[in-house]
Specification:
- The complex is a heterodimer of chains A (317) and B (124).
- By secondary structure, chain A is of the alpha/beta class.
- Helices cover 22% and strands 32% of the residues of chain A.
- In chain A, a hairpin with a 3-residue loop joins strand 8 and strand 9.
- Chain B has a single domain, classed as Globin-like (Orthogonal Bundle), CATH 1.10.490.
- The termini of chain B are far apart.
- The chains are: A alpha/beta (317), B mainly alpha (124).
């Protein structure tokens, strides 16, 4: 008989029984609904062992890579250690440097006290003095040669009246301490289909996760075409332009398409004008909620599979 | 020997749901008659809902009751959801299954299950 370890206790699983049923039979209060692998309400995470293919068949690749699976359709054939979905950790970090990228955006480099096990494109919650907390995307790829891989980069847009962004723009000093929780989110690159065309699209500091995802994909040897559309209301809102042009010059499969929204019109129109058919593409969409909602819908209607569309809508960034 | 397989098994179970959901949801979102009822800010949530709907219509394990269907659609009924929209969705479901080469008798059974929820969905 197989057994599952959950919250420091062992639960036996009868032959043919699902992980969810075994937990429920033992009196564990586990969230669930359909028991048929369709809703995802019961989603959990495996931390040790292998779940059968079927248990994660309908999930996005980035969820699968983090070990997520559906216990209601998971009949294990070997022992598993599992955890609730969405566990997170807290760390201390120091501000390393702040650099202006555009009139509204600064790049903040931070050095975490320990290596943050994260993927470019995920986000962290940044807290200060135990209260104020805001979420920022990880724009960098890890580099073991800088601060033993503990450094990472975020892009901060100045929000009118925003305490955190105001401090990061005007008041912060190198060495100042912050608290980090996370990482969170499923919007990141998963290796495995190196020829698949990739579409990266976003507005404003939606570029932060896209910039991380782009460099992550290139570093992992992504060979298929990669198109990045970055929209900003006016020309001076486009940032990292030289860096992105440089990447485009040195990588023949990468194309950078800046969009000035006031002149060129909505980013989705520009995008679909150039790429009307997206069947088979993998897409990453980041930025404000309204832009993300429109973009992901248009990309889906243009043929991309829903499980190949990764979206991060910024709510308080 | 008489077949004892359920409709859900004959259609292919959750793999069939995963195969059909994008096709069906894309049709619904692209259809001016009904798209406004399905255009949620959170597409992942909508996809999960459509998977739940297809699981039920395919004769699979039902995750919700008639009461859930009533309360779940009350907001849409208030926005004007009526028989014509219900008909359109059933039509799009049939088109999706036809494109997936599901045999006609099975499509009829799926349509009949969907039809059985009409009064609850429209809160009558």
């Amino acid at each position: 008989m197989t057994a599952i370890r959950y919250q420091e206790r062992l639960y036996p699983v009868a032959p043919g029984e699902s992980v969810l049923d075994a937990l429920l039979a033992a009196g564990v209060e586990a969230a669930h609904s359909c028991k048929a692998g369709s809703y995802g309400v019961c989603m959990m995470r495996v931390t040790s062992g292998m779940v059968p293919e079927r248990a994660s068949a309908g999930l996005k690749d980035s969820w699968r890579q983090q070990g997520y699976f559906l216990p209601c359709v998971c009949v294990p054939d070997s022992d598993l250690t599992i955890a609730r979905a969405g566990g997170d950790a807290a760390y201390g970090a120091s501000i390393d440097a702040v650099e202006r990228l555009s009139p509204d955006v600064v790049r903040v480099r931070l050095v975490c006290d320990t290596v943050l096990e994260s993927r470019p494109g995920q986000y962290v919650s940044l807290g200060r003095e135990g209260k104020l907390a805001r979420s920022y995307s990880i724009a960098s790829i890890s580099d073991a040669s800088i601060s033993e891989g503990r450094e990472f980069e975020i892009h901060v847009r100045r929000v009118a009246g925003g305490q955190m962004s105001g401090w990061l723009h005007d008041g912060v000093q190198p060495g100042d301490r912050v608290e980090i929780t996370g990482p969170y989110g499923d919007c990141f690159y998963v290796p495995g289909r190196p020829e698949q065309p990739l579409l990266l699209a976003g507005t404003g500091t939606g570029l932060a996760p896209l910039y991380g995802i782009l460099r992550d994909a290139l570093r992992q040897g992504h060979a298929g075409p990669i198109h990045l559309f970055h929209g900003a209301k006016t020309e001076d809102g486009l940032y990292l332009v030289n860096e992105l042009r440089h990447i485009a010059r040195t990588h023949s499969n990468f194309e950078y398409l800046p969009v000035v929204l006031d002149q060129d019109g909505p980013i989705e129109n520009v995008l679909l004008g150039r790429l009307p058919r997206l069947s088979g593409w993998r897409a990453f969409v980041c930025g404000g909620p309204a832009a993300v909602q429109v973009l992901r819908k248009k990309i889906f209607l243009a043929g991309a599979a829903s499980r190949d569309i990764y979206a991060d809508a910024f709510l308080r960034r | 020997m008489e077949s004892t397989h359920s409709l859900y098994e004959q259609l292919g179970g959750e793999a069939a749901v995963n195969a059909a959901v994008d096709l069906f949801y894309r049709k619904v979102l692209a259809d001016d008659r009904v798209s406004r009822f399905f255009d949620d800010a959170d597409m992942d949530r909508q996809i999960a809902r459509q998977k739940g709907f297809l699981t039920m219509a395919f004769g699979g394990p039902a995750a919700y009751t008639g009461k859930d269907l009533r309360t779940g659609h009350a907001r849409l009924v208030a926005l004007g959801l009526n028989d014509s929209h219900f008909d359109a969705v059933v039509e799009l479901l049939g088109q999706s299954l036809t494109e997936l080469s599901v045999p006609t008798p099975l499509i009829a059974q799926v349509a009949a299950i969907a039809e059985s929820t009409r009064a609850q969905v429209l809160n009558r």
